[in-house]
Amino acid sequence: MEFGSQPAQKANPPKQASPKQLAYRILTGFDQHYRLFSRINAGAPERFLKGDWHGVQRAQKERIRYYSRRVTETVAALMPKLGSLTISTELWRQTKADYSTLLEGHPQAELAETFFNSVFSRLFRHRGLDDQHLYIRAERAHRAAFIPNQLCHRFSLTHACKYAFRQGFNFARLLPHFEDLDGDLDKLEQRLTPLLKQLSATTLELLKPVFFRNKGAYLVGRIIGDHGESPLILAVRHGDNGLVLDAAITRQDDCSVVFSFTRAYFMVDTQSPAALLRYLRHLMPNKSWAELYTAIGLQKHGKTEFYRDFLRHLNQSSDQFVIAPGIKGMVMSVFTLPSYDVVFKLIKDRFAPPKESNKQQVQEKYNLVKEHDRVGRMADTQEFRNFAFPRHRFSPSLLEELLEVAPSEVEVEEDRIIIKHLYIERRMVPLNIYLDNAEDDEQVAHGVGEYGNAIKQLAAANIFPGDMLFKNFGVTRHGRVVFYDYDEIDYMTDCNFRTIPEPRFPEDEMAAEPWYSVGPKDIFPEEFGRFLLGRLAIRKSFLAQHRDLLTADYWNGLKQQIEAGNYPEIRPYREDCRL
Question: Which residues does the entry assign to the active site, renumbered to this chain (predicted)?
Answer without folding.
Answer: 380
